[in-house]
Design goal:
With 515 residues, the chain is an alpha+beta fold. It has three domains: 225 residues, BirA Bifunctional Protein, domain 2; 110 residues, Herpes Virus-1 (2-Layer Sandwich); 111 residues, 3-Layer(aba) Sandwich (Rossmann fold), CATH 3.40.50.800. It has 18 helices and 23 strands. It has a seven-stranded mixed β-sheet with strand order 3-9-10-16-13-12-11. It starts with a helix and ends in a 6-residue tail after the last helix. 33% of the residues are buried. The model has no long low-confidence stretch (mean pLDDT 92).
Length: 515
């Protein structure tokens, strides 16, 4: 099945089973804004809980914060967002559609990589188990040519972005004959900068109002509270501040479902270290964050690290953790060495010292910062993408499955009476009431047992418990395991231990190292 078709099915699946809905759909929706349904909100909360507890429970020197969305407008001047938070915008004159010039170029470069991968797959099928991919990449002239074209194009893109050369960006689009996906033409406007911040006004009257911004990131709320947290918590460097919160960006092109949206949620941790220690801690946090992703049990080959060619104005090192979505490898999390830029700029603009007195050295300094920043919505899409599959289970019989990590699954257990009589619904209800304070449970008595199993597979429920007539006599049930579809007869009293072993968040957290 083509990856594009898979992605369309995934999006439809999210709506059908209560994960994600288009916002304001009864009014034809609002572009790039989505609502999370009854199962989606539970999965989202579980992802956030996994991140939060991995930060604040596993590390003695990381604490939490919840800062306001509205901040003093000088915050964004100091951070550089007013002057530098721009994307290169280009319009197609025929379709009247607007695009990011850099994204058009990156997608064109990705086509060269796709062509190279197709050649490699053909060779793998031809040579079988004796295939040496590394040698083939080095020696096959067609693959080498595709990779060379990709690297050359990305290198020229990096040079243009670093120089802020908008004319060079447009020339790259023209030289590579990049066409508008809608009109199919190369009739492009000039490239111009577009600031991504949403502006609004605060005040009770028009005359007395002042211009403020919806925050485009959560990091600045951490930086302006650095000393508040440090002093009130008696924190010693190195230490971190973690935050989960909403952010807003007026994206030029918001697409690919919830991958790029205008209202989103971030999970960010800023780690404050002594001057000169930023790069060392950058590498440590890069490795820790990759292990956090891999602990979910998805294929390691679905992840890769991508070092930035173009660094943000605040960074001296940056790496993205990318995941292979149905539409290609894309960033899920960024790790950045932000130097002392943010605290130094806030000290300059506020006139307040943002320094830490280090008792071990007997000196005061502005700390440097290592940032880990992950989008909740992108992480949600990553988990759904990695879990969605269609399986042939018997001749002519298929099932749609969300093989979610059990600890993240929105429903842990479905309790299903075999029939709606003979006291079975009452027994099933008793089991549900007994377990639902510890695990999200579904009770379902509608349709045949086979159809109910399929529905729970599609929701991603890791365990189904069937209550039958033997349950009344022996106090046992049949438990069905989602991924294998195997069934086992167990005592009802054993259910908490079985669920705990596989579906407790502690199971995931135990896999993670601490600093």
């Amino acid at each position: 099945m083509a990856q594009e078709d898979t992605f369309k099915k995934l999006v439809a699946h999210c709506k059908e089973y209560g994960y994600v809905f288009p916002s304001s759909e009864i009014y034809d929706g609002l572009g790039a804004v989505y609502d999370y349904g009854q199962h989606g909100v539970e999965l989202k909360n579980n992802i956030k809980r996994y991140w939060w507890e991995s930060m604040t429970l596993l590390h003695d020197n990381i604490v939490g914060l919840d800062s306001a969305i509205f901040m003093h407008p000088s915050t964004w001047k100091a951070s550089g967002h007013v002057d530098a938070f721009n994307d290169p915008l280009i319009d197609n004159k025929d379709s009247k559609k607007r695009y990011r010039a850099d994204v058009l170029i990156e997608e064109h470069a990705a086509k060269y990589e796709e062509k190279a991968e197709k050649e490699i797959e053909k060779a793998r099928e031809r040579f079988g188990e004796h295939f040496d991919e590394a040698l083939f990449r080095q020696t096959n002239p067609r693959v080498a040519a595709y990779i060379e074209k990709r690297d050359d194009l990305l290198s020229r893109l990096s040079d243009a972005l670093n120089a802020n050369d908008l004319a060079a960006l447009r020339q790259l689009v023209i030289d590579n004959q990049i066409v508008c996906p809608v009109s199919g033409t190369c009739n492009w406007t000039e490239v111009r900068q577009f600031n991504l911040m949403f502006a609004t006004e605060m005040g009770s009257t028009a005359e007395g109002s002042s211009k403020i911004y919806l925050r485009p990131e959560t990091a600045q709320g951490i930086f302006v509270n650095f000393l508040n947290v440090q002093k009130s918590g008696r924190m010693k460097i190195p230490f971190g501040i973690a935050q989960i919160g909403k952010a807003f960006r007026n994206e030029i092109v918001a697409r690919q479902f919830i991958f790029r949206v205008r209202e989103f949620e971030q999970m960010e941790m800023q780690y404050f270290v002594p001057p000169g220690a930023g790069i060392e801690w950058f590498h440590r946090w890069r490795d820790l964050r990759l292990q956090w992703h891999l602990a979910l049990g998805f294929a390691p080959s679905a992840y890769r690290l991508h070092d930035h060619d173009k660094l943000a104005h605040y960074a001296d090192a940056a790496t993205d953790i990318e995941f292979r979505f149905p539409f290609g490898f894309k960033e899920v999390e960024g790790i950045h060495s932000r130097t002392d830029f943010d605290l130094r700029r806030h000290q300059e603009f506020s006139g307040k010292k943002m320094q830490y007195f280090d008792p071990s050295l007997g000196v005061s300094y502005i700390p440097h910062v290592v940032e880990t920043s992950i989008g909740v919505d992108r992480m949600f899409l990553q988990v759904i993408s990695a879990s969605y599959r269609e399986e042939v289970v018997a001749a002519g019989d298929t099932r749609v499955l969300l093989a979610l990590p059990p600890a993240l699954a929105p429903v842990k257990l479905a309790v299903l009476p075999l029939v709606k009589k003979d006291g079975l619904p009452e027994k099933a209800g008793e089991i549900t009431r007994r377990l639902r304070l510890d695990y999200p449970c579904h009770y379902d008595e509608k349709d045949s047992i086979g159809k109910r199993y399929r529905r729970q597979d599609a929701i991603g429920t890791p365990f189904c418990v069937t209550v039958d007539h033997l349950s009344l006599q022996e106090n046992t049930v049949t438990i069905r395991y989602r991924d294998t579809m195997q069934q086992e007869r167990v005592a009802i009293d054993r259910l908490p231990d079985i669920i705990d072993e596989k579906a407790s968040l502690k199971t995931l957290l135990r896999l993670l190292p601490s600093l």
